[in-house]
Amino acid sequence: MEVSVKRFMSLTVMALGVIGVVVSLVMAFAGSGDSIRGMMLVLGIVLFFVGLYIFPTLKHHRSIVYVIFLFPLLFTFAVTVIIPLVLGICYSFTDWTGIRFNNVIGFGNYTTMFSDPAFIWSILITFIFVVLNMVLINLVGFLLALLCTSGLKGGGFFRASYFLPNLIGGIVLGYIWQFVFNNVLISMTGNISWLAQSKTALFAIVIVYIWQYAGYIMLIYITGLTQIPGEVLEAAKIDGANSSQTLFKIKIPMIASTITICTFLTLTSAFKQFDVNMALTNGAGSVPNFMGNYLSNGTQMLALNIYNTAISKNNYALGQAKAVFFFIILAIVSLIQVRISNKKEVEL
Q1: Residues 111-128: tens digit of each pLDDT
Q2: pTM confidence score
Q3: Does residue 164 form part of some domain?
């Protein structure tokens, strides 16, 4: 078979694949063709890679084979992340009902979103929650890591004990601590539960989240501390460095990359907090005067606000607009945090 004919066949098959993918996505966006659009999407992607594989070239053939073997993973990532993200952004500009939409309303959902005092309040307390958790979880996790790497007897037991809360699901954890705050600690606060007032309820959520997540961060810090060369620590000891000098001049600078990882994990995890917030307070808590309004959801953080908008209030389009805004905030803050941390690594 001539090269030109084989090339034409390859390009034709690839074009059919692209057309199948585009048509299936258009049908999904329009809410039609429920019975065939999934099969058309898969068939279109398969045809594209078949055409790519039979393309008459030797120079890049091995790379094409590698891509084909990676296809299942790439396909899964596209179906579960990329395509829903693109469709979600499109739906945020419509009156989507969760099944289909009738009109494109432009920035109407975003205008409604920013005129809602409850949503603005959820953004505010989410940022407060994130800052508190970034500082406190990393501090507690690092101190626990220092304790577990200090040669203390039973170090393995302590590591397992501190990590154990992370294995408990957030919903179960929330109900456990709800019992603790409402029945065990209530006598310490004048017979008033910590969860009854929005200010103390927010700090209660912070305490629970630190208790759950600090053990996980501790393990990452332990990994970083154990990778510090023993010769360096021994040399510092010979030179007369005390414990605090060794900690701040040697250990912390040498685990700068570990600190970057831990701050990134605590940042993203705290921003996405949902299950503990839902189980512990379900967003309840009074705010007497915020933007001239009385709010009854004083502990409702951003993820829970999005969930309640879409599911509880059955307003999927507005919930999707909030989710898109949430994604943008998280992406920007994460990039800034990583950039700042990388600069700190260089300075250290």
Answers
A1: 999 999 999 999 999 999
A2: 0.78
A3: yes
